[in-house]
């Protein structure tokens, strides 16, 4: 019997599996390519397990411990993993279409080039997570934390990012077209000229923690106090704009100023896009 077959034999029940893992703390199970589709695996201990290319379509792993697990190229379509532990897990090149991760911790996970379209991920932690080139189109990300996450080339088209923390993220070439950015915190975020924010919806946002900018105030120039002066801007490179918020010690490109460079205030752009949103876009999962 192969090692994988031996390990799979222990998966007849979650209780049996967890007891076996507890009795063998130094053993890392090998489950590459196994079919666990539609299984009820709530509370399972998959910490450090190799599930590369596994089929977990429709499976339930609520409250599971998947810290450090390898889900590379796995099929996680419509998987349910509420309140799960996925710290430092690998989910790159995986299919997570319509997956449910509400309340889960994906901090420092690697989720590059993955499909998370229409995923439900409200209240999740993506702190220092690498989401390079992944698709989160129409995903529900309300009240999630992306602090210091890598969002290079990440797509958030028509996603719901209400009250999301985007502090210190690297969002170069990210796409937020049609997204709901109401209540986002964007202190010291980094974007470049390729970051797209067409037709975004936003009632208010926080350029710094506890510093609210209300976009319904009627004052389209209210953001001026946060924008660097012309002399400072002239000293910057063409492809990046240095953060210009007062009292900030973090140096990096700032998308609000980048939009200003293209003769368009962030505030004005959002006000105009609100009219477009209301007439031609239907919010997703709001």
Task: For the largest sheet, list the strands in their spatial order.
Answer: 1-2-3
Tally the beta strands.
Answer: 3
Instruction: Quickly give the structural class.
Output: mainly alpha
Q: Helical amount among residues, as a percent range?
A: 10-25%
Oligomer: single chain
N to C succession of SSEs: HHEEEHHH
Low-confidence stretches: 218-265, 267-274
Strand percentage lies at under 5%
Cα-atom radius of gyration: 21 Å
How would you state the average pLDDT, rounded?
81
Largest sheet, strands/sense/barrel: 3 strands, mixed
Q: How far apart are the termini?
A: 51 Å
Shape: elongated
In DSSP terms (H or I, runs of 4 or more residues), the helix count works out at 5
Protein name: Pentapeptide repeat-containing protein
Pfam families: Pentapeptide (PF00805), Pentapeptide_4 (PF13599)
Organism: Cyanobacterium stanieri LEGE 03274
InterPro entries: 5peptide_repeat, Pentapeptide-BTB/POZ_domain
List keywords for this structure.
5peptide_repeat; 3-stranded mixed beta sheet; mainly alpha; 5 helices; 286 residues
């Amino acid at each position: 019997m192969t090692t994988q077959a031996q390990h799979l034999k222990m998966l007849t029940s979650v209780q049996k599996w967890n007891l076996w893992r507890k009795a063998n703390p130094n053993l890392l199970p090998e489950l590459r390519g196994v079919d666990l589709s539609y299984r009820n695996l709530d509370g399972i201990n998959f910490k450090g397990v190799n599930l590369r290319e596994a089929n977990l379509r429709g499976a339930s792993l609520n409250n599971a411990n998947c810290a450090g697990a390898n889900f590379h190229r796995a099929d996680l379509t419509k998987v349910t993993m509420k309140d799960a532990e996925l710290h430092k897990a690998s989910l790159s090149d995986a299919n997570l279409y319509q997956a449910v991760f509400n309340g889960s911790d994906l901090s420092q996970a690697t989720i590059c080039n993955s499909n998370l379209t229409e995923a439900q991920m409200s209240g999740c932690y993506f702190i220092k997570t690498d989401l390079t080139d992944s698709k989160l189109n129409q995903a529900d990300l309300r009240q999630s934390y992306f602090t210091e996450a890598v969002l290079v080339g990440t797509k958030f088209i028509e996603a719901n990012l209400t009250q999301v923390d985007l502090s210190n993220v690297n969002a170069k070439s990210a796409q937020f077209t049609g997204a709901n950015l109401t209540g986002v915190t964007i202190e010291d975020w980094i974007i470049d000229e390729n970051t797209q924010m067409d037709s975004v919806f936003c009632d208010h946002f926080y350029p710094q923690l506890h510093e609210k900018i209300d976009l319904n105030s009627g004052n389209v120039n209210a953001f001026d106090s946060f924008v660097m002066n012309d002399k400072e801007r002239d000293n910057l490179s063409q492809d990046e704009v240095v953060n210009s918020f007062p009292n900030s010690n973090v140096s990096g490109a700032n998308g609000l100023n980048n939009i200003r460079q293209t003769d368009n205030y962030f505030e004005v752009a959002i006000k105009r896009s609100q009219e477009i949103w209301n007439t031609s876009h239907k919010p997703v999962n709001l």
